[in-house]
Specification:
With 113 residues, the chain is α+β, with helices and mostly antiparallel strands. It has a single domain, classed as Alpha-Beta Plaits (2-Layer Sandwich), CATH 3.30.70. The strands form two sheets. The protein has a four-stranded antiparallel sheet, with helices on one face. Strand 3 and strand 4 form a beta hairpin. This is Transcription initiation protein.
Amino acid sequence: MAKYLISFPSAAMVVPDGDWEAVGRDAHAVIDDAKAAGVYVFGGGIDEAVPPVLVSADGSVSEGGYPWAPALDGGFCVLELPSRDDAISWAARIAKACRCAQELRVFQFDPQS
């Protein structure tokens, strides 16, 4: 089985103010289903109130991430699934719940992870 990253940037969630409660309820329901199915690995949202730091190999720390990279924000989950088709099905359920399209990526297999 492979691990899949299902994610979206914050800007993708364009939800009318009155719908946020329903979005939260629906998104949590899909994650509860993934947990019940035994495919949930972990997930959450990037805390955008806490700025990133860049930690170098020598241990030095500088404010901000890579200056050339786009900001990493939004929400994500990692699911362990038997096929890409299964991952697409879960991503579609999450997209419906969150009211925005989801990016789907597969992690390369690493026998030590």
